[in-house]
Known about the structure:
Elements: H1 4-10, E1 18-23, H2 38-41, H3 45-53, E2 55-60, H4 70-77, H5 89-96, E3 106-115, E4 121-123, H6 131-141, E5 150-157, E6 160-166, H7 197-213, E7 222-229, H8 237-240, E8 245-248, H9 252-260, E9 264-265, H10 272-281, E10 288-293, H11 295-301, H12 305-323, E11 329-333, E12 350-356, H13 369-372, E13 378-381, H14 385-392
Parallel strand pairs: 1-10, 1-11, 2-13, 8-9, 8-10
Antiparallel strand pairs: 2-12, 3-4, 3-6, 3-7, 5-6, 11-12
Amino acid sequence: MINLEILKQLSVKTPSKIVMLVFDGLGGLPDPETGKTELETASTPNLDRLAAEGVCGLANPVSPGITPGSAPGHLSLFGYDLTQYIVGRGVLEALGIDFELAEGDVAARCNFCTVDENGVITDRRAGRIASEKSAELCKRLRQITIEGVEIFVLPVREHRFAVVFRGSELSGNVEDTDPQQAGLMPKKAVPRSGDAERTAEIINEFTTKAKSLLTDSVPANMVLFRGISQHPNLPQMSDTFKLNPAAIATYPMYRGLAKLVGMEVLATGATFADELSTLSSHWDNHDFFYVHIKQTDSSGEDGDFQRKVRVIADADQLLPQLMELIPDVLVVSADHSTPAVLKGHSWHPVPALIRSRYCRVDEVKEFSEKACAAGGLSTISSTDIMPLAMANALKLNRFGA
């Protein structure tokens, strides 16, 4: 990819508008009975029409064979080189719920989980408990005190919550305690460097006290730490790309990520229909819109093939509302694949399409993994999508003499 400093020199401000529609975890694998992925199974006449009118391909969020988390998958889509810019999920969760992180704070994205009588994890998400229940349990965990550190326990959504530690000489350089699969015990927090030893000890003490406080809580009787991190300083999209960017997302983590790269995070409702209404009402105020659909990912993580199919089909039915706004460039892609058959993120490249007045239309007539593999974009890095969107919006000057 071309680096952000060069893109900053080439970028120019124009009236044209870009919409980047991200179906979280869109990519899938074939159902054993039908031989079709979730995207291939869903009824998607509007996505298919966009594919026929644009140029398609597959995109690797990180690198072939590497399974990305949601944060790097999105940063890649926004044009950030993942070898230079790494963001911890804890910071994103905290920012996404509008918690003001102070310099030196360490934030973690946590799960309530279920463990059996032997301490073995049986459900990493505690059955996706209701947000109200999670808020009650967070209130209980606020009883925890640890000498020399201030602790903030913040409910996010369903089984997710955030913990922020504030004190001197803390470090985010600590391994997760989430083993990423059921059937294993929660891991101990392990420092990756000497300056993180105290922080690891704090996390382990918190976890021990949390387990005691949650003994009678069913099904959420234990906690897992993920994405332990501190606030990074990322180049801002307004500066690099000369854009006035906005984010429309319902889940806190994605709102936090958008905030980190300098997008204005717009208030919206809980559904894709709400997001489209927000897009329409703010259309005149911005020239770049990131619009996020979460449920494709959560359906895949739950192993619910048919629910993921329904989410895709339902979103497709609403796409004419987006097209009525006549964006100069429309990008449709994903941050990673989440095949229902794997019940988690995977390394498979994601389908991508770019529709604009200036793209070279290829022969693809269907928006699916198999069809996009034969598209004019070929297989590219997700980091190339943002420069392509900028070019199609006539927002990049010529490079060199």
